[in-house]
Amino acid sequence: MRIGVSLSSSLQSEDPSVAAGWMIERARAADRVELDSLSVGDHHAMPVAYYQNTPMLGRLLAEWGPRPVGCLFLLPLWHPVLVAEHVGTLAALTPAPFIVQTGIGYGEDQFRAMNARHDTRGAVLEESIGVIKALLAGAPVDSELVGGPVTLGLRPRQEVGGWGGGGGPSRRAIERAARLGDAWYGNPALTPTSAAEQMEVYRAACEDAGRTPQALLRKDVIVLAEPGLAARLGEEILAAGYRGLGPEAVLVGTPKEVADQIRPFADLGFEAVVCRCMTIAQPQAIETIEALAEVRALLAS
Fold this sequence. Notes:
Low-confidence stretches: none
Largest sheet: 8 strands, parallel, barrel
Strand order of the largest sheet: 1-2-3-4-5-6-7-9
Helix content: 40-55%
Structural class: alpha/beta
Strand content: 15-25%
Radius of gyration: 19 Å
């Protein structure tokens, strides 16, 4: 079981440079213990401070070794040529495999702010994936999304993969990941029961599409050595309405407890867990990130 880290991009501080520094420190900690991947998310027109993915990832690459790296793009909110150019630029800054995580987006306020249509987001997502893949491969593209023949000279030399987010219990989203993605990126709200149900959908869709299943899981986590501390913090954070998640959906506890919580997902066939720290203080976040290496070792044993 591989374990990576997705850094929260909405850390809050009176001084934005301080919270940006926290992200850098977390990336440095993840590299220090050689976690398996590093990624950041994507949102726009947020009412709280939210650090944008591509400039932040460009900075974080200075702290990261030659292991997979990438970021999420909510593609209906982006022009596909711009995504391809950003990916090409970021990939030029690292020899590591680059992962393009794709999502459909949600929230009509974000779509209005970006002058994008919420009602056509599924179709736009699918067309954008095809356009971006073609541009990164050096093929000329002419489509309604692009508006004319386009070929990009800036193309990654290393492997560029794509993870398709399931975005929840939608069968259509999971089937889209099977058809268009290199892997299915399971939603953080999954429990072992719901994950088993959705894994069946994904595997059947892969069989129909002639694709080999590859499933990864996103999870929100707190991993601390002191017995009971992570559980107490998790209860407080969830009680405040954290991301609408229930206690069965998060990974909270000591390294051994969290390894035990992951094992049912490994038994279902998930090959990696990408972990995001819950809203905990910076020292606890650093401890959590470093403890994920111990969780990985326990799973390996």
